Amino acid sequence: MFQTVALSGSRGERQLFSEVSVTVKPGTLLAVVGENGSGKTSLLRMLCGLLSPDRGVILWQGKDIRQLKELYHAQLTYVGHLNGIKDELTPVENLKVSASLAGDESSGSIVQKALEAVGLGGSVHRLPTRVLSQGQKRRVTLARLWLSARPLWLLDEPFASLDAAATSYLTQRLQSHLSNGGMAVVATHQEIALPADSVQLLRLTR
């Protein structure tokens, strides 16, 4: 179980959000929505330990993540709103590097299956990523989720730049993750087509 208790955050002199208390149970996705500048990305970065909150605590299985440190990080997969891929590498090479750094399965066959799962097959594997479209680059990044067996996913605008087919692939992968007892926190501008009883909504206001 994943919780925030009275979490508050700011950027410079401006407070972004305050007193955010949520509980995300296994099999549940928390959709974080709000206008640009409302603090969605900052909240996600706090949840993965990259930013410190002004006040409040973040709990994993009832324990403060600041005490758990690496033990907590080993339980999550974070995908930011930037793709974080290298243009000179191929999709396969990019995915192998990111999977290896995260401690996920990174063998060639597994990586190729992950790319095929997001609709990137055949000759695309051998192309430098710089020649791919923005949507294809986003698919390369999101293919990490087909390699991750970690229970908590923190995803910042994962549907950005995706066409209808890729959106469907990602939605199906999220459904599979939740069905297997996983949890997800997703910052998004769009509705996620999942069963209503598996989705919670957190709206941040400016």
List keywords for this structure.
single chain, 206 residues, alpha/beta, four-stranded antiparallel β-sheet, 9 strands, 26% strand
Structural summary, described in words:
The protein is α/β, with parallel strands linked by helices and 206 residues long. It is 31% helix and 26% strand. It is built from seven helices and nine strands, in the order βββαββααβαααβαββ. The protein has helices at residues 40-47, 65-68, 70-73, 91-102, 108-117, 134-142, 164-179, and strands at residues 2-11, 14-24, 29-33, 55-60, 63-64, 76-79, 152-156, 183-187, 199-203. It has a five-stranded parallel β-sheet with strand order 6-7-8-3-9, sandwiched between helices.
Number of helices: 7
Strand content: 25-35%
Low-confidence stretches: none
| SSE string, helices as H and strands as E | EEEHEEHHEHHHEHEE
Termini separation: 28 Å
CA-based shape: globular
Helix content: 25-40%
Count of beta strands:
9
Question: Averaged pLDDT, please?
Answer: 92
Describe the largest sheet. 5 strands, parallel
Radius of gyration: 17 Å
| Spatial order of strands in the largest sheet | 6-7-8-3-9
Structural class: alpha/beta
Give the arrangement of secondary structure elements.
Elements: E1 2-11, E2 14-24, E3 29-33, H1 40-47, E4 55-60, E5 63-64, H2 65-68, H3 70-73, E6 76-79, H4 91-102, H5 108-117, H6 134-142, E7 152-156, H7 164-179, E8 183-187, E9 199-203
Parallel strand pairs: 3-8, 3-9, 6-7, 7-8
Antiparallel strand pairs: 1-2, 1-4, 4-5
